[in-house]
Amino acid sequence: MSIQTTPGDAPRPSISAVLPAYNEEDNVEKAVRDTLAALKMYAGDHEVIVVDDGSRDGTSAVVTALQSELPELRLVRHPVNRGYGGALRSGFAAATKELIFLNASDNQFDPQELRNLLPLIENADIVNPYRANRQDPLVRRLNAFAWNSLIRLLFGYVARDIDCGFKLLRRDVLDHVTLTSNGAMLDTELLVGAKMRGFRIVETPVTHKPRVAGSQTGAKLRVILKAFRDLLIFWRRLNRELRNERLQSARS
């Protein structure tokens, strides 16, 4: 792991923070500044990558204006909306540091809680927190309960809150897990794919705050139906991949 030290300091890891954003004009500046403040405190070499996923508001303009002040800030822009998973895949592809810190651009998480994740990553490959006292509408929480229950039925226990938008992972995990989803399935592809290949996933509670600006998209019916369709496709694909990997291992 690439580290940066100063005399008397403990080693600090290099971290790429990835912030997916869709129509977050009113939130993204605070999200960027708060994330950078946490990285400056807890990381060595670092960068913040905002992925503007085809926003129709001024999200990209806000980020572009900040770049003249914040050299660690990078912008990846999609000309059209690809979806949450597509935004994450672009952010992961752009990341250059040893650890990837996934944070939401809606300010529902406190980036300072990165301090709680870093000690855990020393003995794990992915830290996937769960939202303590989740501050989402009832329908969104019910959808999450149903989704996590279905994942557990298909794949066994993976994580308490598989879709938590606040994660820390080693970038090299992405070399071994196939990510194809442009939608809400991306977190499931990542965590289930990692678990099935023997990567270590640990959990810890994180604070979850109410959204005060902008609007959520994850609870829309078309998003939910697409996620369930993608889950069946993923289940078949993962079984095929694991079977092929076992055959290759037996031949070598």
Topology (elements, then pairings):
Layout: E1 3-4, E2 12-13, E3 15-21, H1 28-42, E4 46-53, H2 59-67, E5 73-78, H3 84-94, E6 99-102, H4 114-121, E7 126-127, E8 130-132, H5 138-155, E9 167-170, H6 186-196, E10 201-202, E11 205-207, H7 221-251
Parallel strand pairs: 3-4, 3-6, 4-5, 7-10, 8-11
Antiparallel strand pairs: 1-2, 6-9, 7-9
What can you tell me about this protein's structure?
The chain has 252 residues and is of the alpha/beta class. It has a single domain (11-251), classed as Spore Coat Polysaccharide Biosynthesis Protein SpsA, Chain A. Helices cover 41% and strands 17% of the residues. α2 (59-67) links the parallel β4 and β5. The protein starts with a strand and ends with a helix.
Rounded to the nearest angstrom, the radius of gyration is: 18 Å
Q: What global shape is seen? A: globular
Number of helices: 7
Largest sheet: 7 strands, mixed
So, CATH architecture? Alpha-Beta Complex
Q: Could you tell me the number of beta strands?
A: 11
Q: Which strand-content bin applies to the residues?
A: 15-25%
Q: Which sequence of strands runs across the widest sheet?
A: 5-4-3-6-9-7-10
Q: What name does CATH use for the topology?
A: Spore Coat Polysaccharide Biosynthesis Protein SpsA, Chain A
